[in-house]
From TrEMBL:
Pfam families with a match to the protein in the record: Cofilin_ADF
PROSITE patterns according to UniProt: ADF_H
Protein name: ADF-H domain-containing protein
BP term (GO), one: actin filament depolymerization
Residues annotated as domain ADF-H: 15-146
Amino acid sequence: MTFDKNINGQANAVSGTAVQDECKLKFLELKAKRNYRFIIFKIDGQEVVVEKLGSPEENYDDFANSLPPDECRYAVFDFDFITNENIQKSKIFFIAWSPESSRVRMKMVYASSKDRFKRELDGIQVELQATEPSEMSFDLIKSRAY
């Protein structure tokens, strides 16, 4: 295993991809303050950065339509639902979006950085890997929430 140093001096295993502090900060705001419905992250150069913040008013379709059809992304989605016992609940999904049409190198970089990035986001409750929209449909999200 090799280690690279990012600009902040933190060691990152294998992929060498750093996680920008803003990623963790915005995730905490989604989790604790519910400031956002979703966050989309992308790897820019050697670091994971926030690409888009979805307001609390946005819905699942807004989220799904924000993912590029031919590029990989990481995303978190705060899914609100009502249980069979009529209790309001929420689950935070981590989605690794890796469409078949994306470049092989991009898929490899995202795959090798995923677990390390996910560990930075404390509070993920459900993880999905999707290569096409049907693998992260609203119905699938709903079924995984219960």
